[in-house]
Amino acid sequence: MFAYIVRRLIATIPVMAVVALFVFSLLYLSPGDPAAIIAGDLATDEDIARIREKLGLNQPYLVRFGTWVWSVLHGDLGISIFTNLPVMQLIGQRVEPTVCLTLATLLVAVATAIPMGVIAAWKVGTWIDRLIMAFAVLAFSMPVFVIAYLLIFTFAIGEFTVFGYTIELDLLPAQGYSRISEGVGPWLSHLVLPSVALGMTFTALIARITRASMLDVLSQDYVRTAKAKGLGERDVLIGHALKNAAVPIATVIGIGVALLIGGVVVTETVFAIPGIGRLVVDAILRRDYPIIQGVILLFSAAYVLVNLAVDISYTFLDPRIRY
Question: What pLDDT digit, counting tens, does each position of 116-137 carry?
């Protein structure tokens, strides 16, 4: 196992090298002169020249790339063009909301989707199965921002009239973020709507894969043998079927992290959460290339590590797997 982990870690080096090359090339792939675009329409030739000097655009491409990689290996992702602050410092200031939102979404999605998929497979062909699959199709088809706005209207700013009485559902905050150091209650209340909105698509994906994997396992001979021996439905579903169907479920959870990374940007924008997603949006609007490069590089590294963790989890989910 240890040798396998070491080999996988070594294998990530060329992957991250390609990612780094692409991320660095964003500055050169943008149409026009990046320095002129950053400087704006009212900039003088001196302003453009100063920006070109600051970005190192006067140097050869390979020299600039080698300098940038060397700085990244030493933990330096560059300096923001507009704030003149280190990119790592800006990311550090925004990392807590993004990490908390991602973990809360994973918890909500996994805790909801797996039971839904198991129940749908258990009650296959019934109205329960059709209801769960209808929800999965609907949730997977709706964009994250649409779900977010529906949740905000329903639980944050919605007003309903019942028998002549107006009911205001001001149950949860619609925007902002409260750090965990300011209290667990406000912290959780600000995470409920964003995590549900972001997790709906992820939940639908996991539920559908869980159902399909469970149906495949439930048709196996050893499951029929377990039933013939008189084991209860709970023992068959949890002890036999779900345990052997866990590998595809773990795989789709790892793949779904990419959905979360993309959805975080939209969700943080809708709910005005000061996380890394908002940082990226602001950087794109201002063409702050060092921030864009640094965030994409960190997100890519996180995704590679998540896939490694998923591969390692296979040995715990299925003892037959050996590396």
Answer: 988 888 888 888 989 989 988 8
Tokens 């996988």 identify what position? Answer: 8
Nearest to 244 by CA among 314, 310, 299: 314
Is position 82 within any domain?
no
Listed residues 19, 43, 73: the one ending a domain:
73
Are 150 and 134 contacting, i.e. CB atoms less than 8 angstroms apart?
A: no
292 - beta bridge partners? none
Contact 276, 264 (CB under 8 A): yes
- pLDDT, tens digit, 9 for 90 and up, residues 161-179: 666 666 666 777 888 888 8
Residue 270 lies in a domain: yes
**302 and 206 Cβ atoms separated by less than 8 Å:** no
| pTM of the predicted structure, to 2 decimals | 0.80
Residue 317: what residue type? Answer: L
What are the structure tokens assigned to 212, written together?
């399909």
Residue 85 CA to residue 94 CA, distance in Å, equals 14
List, in sequence order, the alpha helices (H) in 40-143: 45-55, 61-73, 87-122, 127-141
Examine the domain organization and report whether 111 and 45 are in the same domain: no
